[in-house]
Every structure is written in C-alpha cells, then in structure tokens.
Amino acid sequence: MTVSFWLEDAEDGIRRPSLDGSCTVDVAVVGAGLSGLWTAREVLRRDPSRSVLVLEARTAGFGASGRNGAWLIAGLGISPGELARRTSPEQARATILAMRGALDEVENTLAEDGIDARLRRKGNLRVARGPHEVPAMERSLEALEQLGVADGFELLDADALARRVHIDDARGALFEPYSAAIHPGHLVRGLARSVEAHGGTIVEHTPVVDLTPRRGRARPTVVTPTGTVSADAVVLATEAWTSRLPGFERRVLPVYSLVVLTEPIDDERWAQIGWQGHELLASHRYTVDYLSRTVDGRILFGGRGAPYHFGSRIADRYDHHERTHAGLRQQLLEWFPALRGVGFSHAWGGPLGMPRDWMPSFEHDPATGIGAAYGYTGQGVLATNLAGRVLADLIVHGDTPYRDLPLVGHRPRRWEPEPLRWLGARYLQVALARLDDRSAQRGRPPSGRSLAERLVRH
What's the CATH number for 1-118+183-252+355-415? Predict the structure, then answer.
C-alpha cells in the first residue's frame, strides 16, 4: 500500500524490528511521527545518558507526519485574534513568537543533522478567491497588527499577486513570511535516523494496546502484544490515534484530510501559472484548502470533505474517498485552468487530531509519569518541534522556558459521547461546505451569525 507520495519518494530501505519482550527504559515514546521523534531527539540532546525507546504501530512517519501538505508554517489551529481573546494579548504574542522561533530551530536542525528535507523558506500566500473572501483576509492582518506581530506581512492586491502566481478569480492575498515548503517524507525519515544517531531506539510494527500511569513506586508502563515497557516517563505522540487509546478516546476527533498530486507539469504550463517563488497557497474557505509546489514540479492540492466516521473509527480504507478526491481535482482546475488535461499521479489521505477547543496540548504530569502532545488540527508540522522541546525540557529539567504559553499544560474539554459526536461532526461538515458554496455564489462573505460559524469560531 502506498501511504503517500512523500513516504514513497523518501523510502530509505530501513526495516526496524518490532519489540521482542519486556524491558525498562528511562523514556518511552509512543508514536514515531514528528511529535515523538522531536521529543526523543531533544531528550537525548539534553541528556545523552538516558535510554529512549520509540514505539511505532506501523512504520516511522506512517501517520499525518508522512502524509501532510508540506506546510512548515508558524500557525496553529486557533487564530491569533481568538487566542488573544481566550488568554491575553501578551500570551498570544508570546505563542506566535515561539512558533516563529521554531522555524529557525527546524532549519538549524536539518543543517546540523544533515537532513535534506527540501526546505524552501519562501512564505505563504493566503489568497482571497472572490470578493467574499476579501474581508477575512483583511481581518487576519488587522488582528496581527493589533498584537504587534505583523512585521514582514504584506497585503497584496490582485495585480501584485498576479506578478507572483496567476490564480483564477484572485482578488489579492496576505503574504505571510514565517513559513516554508518542505518534503514531509524526508523530514520524518531523516528525524528517525537522527534519533538513532543520538542513541535512541525505534521499534516498528509494535502497536500500544494499553497504558498504565505511575502508581506509588511502580513506573508507568506501556503494553504491547509482544512485551511491556516500563519507563520513568511515557510520552503519547499519537495525534489522531490518541482517540484509540484507553482513557483518551474523547481527547481528539479524528478528521480526515485528503490530498491529490499532479504529474510533473511542463514548462509551458508553468509559464502560464507563474509560482516560481514556491510559496505555500491557501484560500479563506471554512472547509480548508492547501496547496504546495514540489521540487520536481508537481502541485499538491489538499482539503477536507471526507466524512467523520462514527465512534472516531480510523481505518486504512478511509484514506481514500473518491468523491472528495474528485472534488479536490476539480478545485485545483478552478484555481489554475491552465492545468486542464494534466494527469494526477497520487491520491491519499489520513486522519488529523482535532481537539474540542482547536488548541494543541503539550502536557507532562510527573505524578503519573505520562506526557502527551496532540491536537494540532492539521497545522502540526512546525508545532511538533516546539512540542518536542517543551516535553524534553519538562522530562529532563522539570521546567521549560515556555511554561507560560497557553499550550503548555493545556487539557481541552473532551468531545461529546456518541451519537452526539457523530451528529455534530457531520452537521458541521455539511453546513460549512454549504456556507462556502453560498458565499461564492453570492459574492458576499458569511454573516458570522450562523450556528455552524459560532461553533467553529477559532
């Protein structure tokens, strides 16, 4: 099975064994995606004497870390304005600056560890496609200006945008400098090799079926079909799959995001499209779209639309949903009519973890010995680096310079039990799609007063 183009392209031939028997380590990390690998690497950098074991149910990068849209962006699932409203302008500002600093951390790590992740730090264009998206674009900049963190941002009119990239019905864009395009497969597989080079161990095809917190003098334990691991600290880095762990079923909602990828595009079509800067692209739709350009001249188009599955079910067969994939192909042609007739080489998808309040959580409880990072709402490629450094600080030093960030120690309200969870998720999926379609047809922005808009205000 091809999980994604990224993992196929980054195949390194490494086959890691599964866990064979019980053992005791200093730190056990559940999940060999970006959160788990960053945490493992950072623990080992802070204290090379510690034994670190990473347990992966499939192969390194199998989840969202190896399937995403190639966005390394200093953003979160919650907007800067909403974060300031919920916390304070000072905390929102500190969070934004910490995320921007993470971009430098990733770039430095890639250079230090010799990981060629095809990083292109060219920024991001949030495009207003149609007049109905212009107000949202302008409000985004106003919120950043009010927090004093709009340096480097630029509001482009239609002509200025067209000098960078030709997008049908584009009325302008907000240029965001703190982001980069990346090759997710090379990033996650390179980090896995880095963890091992720093002295860590990764076992694959080792699903975790249960977790026991610290009790008295007994260490927390991780239970797998082939052995039990005891550790001083256990880190859950399972994102959408957190919902499959006993006791964590309602922490996140597994929401599927799907992707289509073109064949390499010929020079004549690139001349019509432009986009020589390799910026990331997105619009202001509620139902989300995201585009990136690969180094070998393909275009990735991703978005939501695949249905939520009752009971937060996750299965390989859900990674493909033909109606949604067909819709994504059509949307890409609407962005770039010059692509009509271009072939598509890949289509894939996978679940992301959506918390009840849209805010990611970086937590570690010394009393139970369990830490966790989850809830990125589809914007975790960069945030995982910050999460890994925070968790490593807390495990090794018992404190972190980021302790005052609202993400640290945060525990979101749990999602509703079924069938309320299914009813709510499906209602929002349908209602938001209709809002987007209606706004585009009328050329006017949504009112902001509908039930769906109030429920997802973030």
Answer: 3.50.50.60
Regarding pTM above 0.70, the answer is: yes
Q: Which CATH number is correct for 124-177+255-353, 3.20.20.10, 3.40.50.11270, 3.30.9.10, 3.40.50.2300?
A: 3.30.9.10
How many other CB atoms are there within 10 angstroms of residue 1's CB atom? 5
Residue ranges of the domains in the chain?
1-118+183-252+355-415, 124-177+255-353
**Residue type at 75 in one-letter notation:** G
| Torsion region of 214: left, alpha or beta (phi above 0 gives left; psi -120 to 50 gives alpha) | beta
Angle between helical axes of 383-396 and 34-46 (0-180°, round to 10)? 40
- How does pLDDT run along the chain (458 residues), one tens digit per residue? 679 999 999 999 999 999 999 999 999 999 999 999 999 999 999 999 999 999 999 999 999 999 999 999 999 999 999 999 999 999 999 999 999 999 999 999 999 999 999 999 999 999 999 999 999 999 999 999 999 999 999 999 999 999 999 999 999 999 999 999 999 999 999 999 999 999 999 999 999 999 999 988 889 999 999 999 999 999 999 999 999 998 899 999 999 999 999 999 999 999 999 999 999 999 999 989 999 999 999 999 999 989 999 999 999 999 999 999 999 999 999 999 999 999 999 999 999 999 999 999 999 999 999 999 999 999 999 999 999 999 999 999 999 999 999 999 999 999 999 999 999 999 999 999 999 889 998 998 887 788 878 877 76
